[in-house]
Design goal:
- The complex is a heterodimer of chains A (370) and B (601).
- Chain A has helices spanning 9-15, 17-37, 46-65, 68-92, 112-129, 133-137, 143-157, 162-178, 183-195, 197-203, 206-216, 227-237, 250-253, 265-297, 302-327, 344-362; strands spanning 94-96, 99-105, 108-110.
- Chain A is mainly alpha-helical.
- Chain A is globular.
- The two termini of chain A are 15 Å apart.
- Chain B has 601 residues and is of the alpha+beta class.
- Chain B folds into three domains: 52-72 and 162-243, Penicillin-binding protein 2a (Domain 2), CATH 3.90.1310.10; 80-159, Alpha-Beta Plaits (2-Layer Sandwich); 247-294 and 312-600, Beta-lactamase, CATH 3.40.710.10.
- In chain B, helix 15 crosses helix 21 (487-500) and helix 16 (378-388) crosses helix 19 (434-441).
- The longest helix of chain B is centred in the N-terminal third of the chain and has 27 residues, at 14-40.
- The chains are: A mainly alpha (370), B alpha+beta (601).
- At the A-B interface, helix 8, helix 12, helix 13, helix 14 and helix 15 of A face helix 1 and helix 2 of B.
Chain lengths: 370, 601
């Protein structure tokens, strides 16, 4: 095995200094918002958020510096492992907020659906990498990947967690698209999905149906199902350019804004720091995503290229869906804002994803799947 | 080593670039949405945000008090501590009620009522648990508040009337505003505890008594709990009102008249017009009505005597014999009769084949006007009516204040009725007949007057023909509007009225050593049929109560130097000289010899 790691740890950090700094800045904003959401206290969340981030940084760097061939070799097993956890959680998982999502491990609770997002990108890249050119052009080649996407998506949808299921489908299709599936087929399957919408509609939970209906007409039930969106829009709209000031958001501190420490944290940020704060966080995310693409586009290996594109797209999806739903551009489906929303699994999963992005940049000359 | 199949360049693939462009557009969309919300729609959302968390709580002013002329309180506010439950959650409500059940010994019924209220309106912020807490209970609840912050103890005020029924009608009562009052903007703010005066002085001086409402601007959180106070503007209490009424006299008169089913009494001071007493029986409990107690409302509404009717200002009665004074003035002023001229009374008056009887079966014989007033001879005035005609009588009646409100400013005052040719044609579609004139001349027939009109009328006479304006407001000075009668007419009438109360029908009102002037009245409720007359059943005392005559007395004291004018009307009280005049004497006694009056009460 040739040695591709031609950089020391220090020079690795230096090379990726901008990337890592942006992650740290986003996380710091997250800690500040958790501090504010806790009413100006480190307990119960802000301190834990910071601690978790330090752990996650460790995991991220470990993944980044682990030999890519190791991940290549273990990709299937990782996917199968997480899939098993998803089965497990579907049968015996802990119930929270009306959904069966968590596995309790005495000290921590994990949410396998978050890890499945990364594992799915990993396994799809591995699969396409193992094919040669002729096999890639074979007509039934995309059937296995579609199954790989469908099985966990259905499991997650049954939890029920519409947001994560949509992200899984989105990220999966992203990788398949990068792998060379013809655009018309994607469009066709999208149309097919649209046609099957009535069937899916029947299997949605009442609250999910309500959320979609409310997205179409948010003012129809301002105290009921439309409450989340309305209060979120009030928080955003009442802030103005400079915002109401740190710890001074009336919508969030007087508890009008629901889920302010998780899904609606962007609304809280905008309420307290206004257009300025919101734009700053958006700018940081955009830079992070752009840097990821830049790193990916210079990778020579097919495995790395696919994985990098997929994971960047995954990050984009999280940011876009979360902020979009907070603003009323998309239905409220419950997607966390990476590194800012409170939640260990979502932060760890985002850290692992970015760890892989760093990993492929680090092993940019490695050509797996040639 | 496997054959190299694929070599990737160090540049992005087309698909990667395409997706990147897609993402750039997505972010542009997000930015524009953010800017739209924060710059274009910010005003709307700012307002919504304010509406979310800023609330106004009105602070109600204390209603002004009402006093009598000596400073006795007629209407006041009783402060009491009340216990409310503030936004109790379902689970905590059960526990709190459990605690309160033992500490305040709440009954099962009260608990059920509170639970029903909390179920009925889950967003209701305050649920009343108990009113009028004792000091012991308040101190106990303040202690409990540390564990149960939902307990809210506030000082509230209820209107109360110390003299209760005695001042029921004249002071009135208050209540929540109705739709009509809301449209008129009687109250500046709608609030369940902000009350409007419904009748009496409470209504007349409502705007003065109301005061100015204050408010508390507070910040609340999503469940409605108050976080902090932003602004406070205190309430300004309503102004107090001093009236001309005499609480002592009024209660005395009320107890005097209370045994009668329905009666009223008015005392007016001369010449100021200050009303010292304005009693209407039966009365109601104004405290009970103000607090909306259903038992008080039920008795007030279901009593066949209609306690809610203010008889002194809204009771329509035939004025009866006192109206003979009006006929007499009309005749004297018109010069159709000389004071010494005699008219013969055979006991009846014949007009168009119909006999109009005098109350005295065998007639008074040949009498002068003075004797006619003194003995209340009907035939004498029938004869005058024949000579005068209705027009002159009606004009004189209107000049003396009949047929229109006196302007006392109490809600519900009736105008009475002075019939005329036009009135009869318009209302009854009949021509005026001389028989009508005959009846009107002795205050019977279609003519109607309120006790207050009678009181004002007699006050005019007592005041030597100078108009008296009845009022409940204590004020300096009074107008001196002459009614324009000849002094001889007034002097003659005063002499005749004094005589009536010395030797005539009103002699039972005489009070030594004072001279009393006055006229009794016996108003027929049902005319005496010729059959009854043949059987000698002219006395109505044997009839059922509803068909007996109304007894009234109209007069003033002292006759030589008038100070008080008085009217007493006893519904179905029989003859005026027997039913009303003795009561007038008791009231006169109370007025002029305060210490001696006690034994009659």
């Amino acid at each position: 095995m040739r040695k591709y790691r031609n950089l020391s740890f220090i020079s690795f950090l230096l090379k990726n200094a901008v990337f890592l700094t942006i992650i740290c800045l986003i996380m710091l904003i997250g800690v500040a918002m958790q501090y504010s959401a806790g009413g100006g206290h480190w307990m119960p969340r802000a301190g834990k958020h910071l601690f978790r981030f330090i752990v996650c940084m460790g995991v991220m760097l470990t993944i980044a510096l682990t030999d890519q061939r190791f991940w290549y070799a273990w990709a299937y097993w990782l996917y199968i492992g997480v899939l098993f956890l998803l089965f497990f959680v579907g049968l015996w998982g802990g119930v929270g907020m009306g959904a069966r999502r968590w596995i309790g491990l005495y000290i921590i609770e994990i949410q396998p659906s978050e890890f499945m997002k990364v594992a799915l990108v990993l396994v799809l890249s591995r699969y396409y990498c193992s094919l040669n050119v002729c096999e890639r052009q074979a007509p039934g080649v995309h059937i296995t990947p579609l199954l790989m996407v469908a099985i966990p998506s259905i499991l997650v949808l049954r939890q029920p967690d519409l947001g994560s299921a949509l992200i899984l489908v989105g990220a999966g299709f992203g990788v398949i698209f990068f792998a060379g599936l013809q655009l018309w087929k994607i469009v066709a399957s999208f149309l097919l999905g649209l046609c099957s919408f009535p069937i899916a509609w029947m299997h949605l939970h009442t609250y999910q149906k309500k959320r979609i209906l409310i997205f179409l007409n948010p003012d129809q039930d301002p105290l009921g199902a439309g409450y989340h969106l309305l209060q979120s829009k009030i928080a955003l709209g009442s802030a103005g350019f400079w915002g109401k000031g740190f710890l001074k958001g009336t919508q969030s501190h007087l508890n009008f804004l629901p889920e302010k420490h998780t899904d609606f944290i962007f609304a809280m940020l905008c309420e307290e720091f206004g257009f300025l704060g919101g734009s700053l966080l958006l700018f940081l995310y955009i830079t992070l995503i752009a840097l990821s693409y830049l790193m990916t586009s210079t990778v020579r290996g097919y495995f790395g290229r696919l994985m990098g594109s997929g994971l960047t797209f995954l990050l984009f999806l999280h940011v876009f869906v979360n902020i979009g739903m907070v603003m009323g551009l998309l239905p409220i489906v419950g997607v966390p804002l990476s590194f800012v929303s409170y939640g260990g699994s979502s932060m760890l999963s985002a850290a692992i994803a970015l760890g892989f992005v760093l990993n492929i940049a680090h092993y940019s000359t490695l050509r797996l799947g040639e | 080593m496997r054959k190299k199949l694929y070599d990737l360049p160090y540049r992005p693939t087309r698909r990667l670039f395409g997706l990147f462009i897609f993402e750039v557009f997505s972010f542009i969309l997000i930015f524009s949405r953010l800017a739209f919300l924060q710059f274009w729609e910010d005003e709307r959302y700012n307002l919504l945000s304010q509406k979310n968390c800023v609330r106004f709580f009105p602070i109600l002013p204390q209603r002004g008090e009402i006093y009598d002329k000596n400073g006795h309180i007629l209407a006041t506010n009783d402060g009491s501590y009340r216990l409310f439950l503030e936004n109790p959650s379902k689970s905590r409500l059960e526990k709190i009620l459990g605690v309160l059940k033992t500490e305040l010994s709440l009954s099962e019924k009260e608990i059920a009522c509170i639970q029903e209220k909390s179920l009925k309106s889950p967003y209701l912020s305050l649920i009343l648990v108990r009113d009028k807490l004792s000091w012991k209970e308040v101190s106990l609840l303040v202690f409990l508040q540390s564990t149960w912050p939902e307990l809210n103890i506030t000082l509230g005020y209820t209107r109360s009337y110390p003299y209760e029924e005695a001042f029921g009608h004249v002071v009135g009562y208050i209540g929540s505003s109705n739709a009509q009052e809301e449209n008129q903007g009687v109250l500046p703010v709608k609030h369940p505890d902000y009350r409007v005066g419904k009748v009496g002085l409470e209504r007349t001086f409502n705007s003065t008594l109301l005061g100015k409402i204050g408010f508390r601007k507070v910040e609340t959180n999503a469940v409605g709990r108050i976080v902090r106070q932003l602004e406070l503007s205190p309430a300004v209490s309503g102004e107090c009102i001093k009236t001309t009424l005499d609480a002592d006299l009024q209660s005395f008169v009320y107890t005097l008249l209370k045994p009668y089913k329905a009666a009223s009494c008015i005392v007016i001071e001369i010449p100021s017009g200050a009303i010292r007493c304005l009693v209407s029986v039966p009365s109601y409990s104004p405290t009970g009505l103000s607090q909306g107690k259903s038992i008080d409302w039920q008795t007030a509404l279901q009593d066949p005597c209609h306690p809610l009717l203010h008889r002194a200002i809204a009771g329509h009665y035939p004025p009866a014999s006192p109206f003979k004074i009006v006929t007499a003035i009309a005749a004297l002023e018109a010069g159709i009769i000389a004071p010494k001229e005699t008219i013969s009374c055979p006991g009846y008056f014949e007009l168009g084949g119909h006999k109009f009887h005098c109350w005295h079966k065998t007639g008074h014989g040949s009498i002068t006007l003075e004797e006619a007033i003194c003995k209340s001879c009907d035939v004498y005035f029938f004869t005058l009516a024949g000579r005068l005609g209705i027009d002159k009588i009606a004009t004189m009646a209107q000049r003396l204040g009949f047929g229109k409100p006196t302007g006392i400013m109490l809600y519900g005052e009736k105008a009475g009725l002075v019939p005329s040719r036009a009135w009869k044609l318009l209302k009854r579609h009949e021509r005026w007949s001389p028989a009508d004139t005959v009846l009107v001349s002795i205050g019977q027939g279609p003519i109607l007057a309120t006790p207050l009109q009678l009181a004002t009328f007699i006050a005019h006479i007592a005041n030597k023909g100078v108009r008296v304006f009845p009022t409940l407001e204590e004020k300096e000075g009074h107008s001196a509007e002459e009614l324009g009668f000849r002094p001889e007419t007034i002097a003659f009438l005063q002499r005749a009225l004094t005589e009536a109360c010395t030797t005539g029908t009103g002699r039972r009102a005489r009070l030594e050593p004072f001279l009393v002037a006055g006229k009794t009245g016996t108003a027929q409720v049902r005319s005496i049929s010729s059959q009854d007359r043949m059987l000698g059943k002219t006395d109505t005392r044997d009839r059922p109560w509803e068909e007996r005559d109304h007894a009234s007395f109209v007069g003033y004291i002292p006759a030589d130097k008038p100070r008080y004018a008085l009217v007493i009307v006893i519904e179905h009280g029989g003859k005026g000289g027997e039913g009303a005049a003795p009561l007038a004497k008791v009231v006169f006694e109370k007025l002029l010899i305060p210490h001696a009056a006690g034994e009659h009460a």
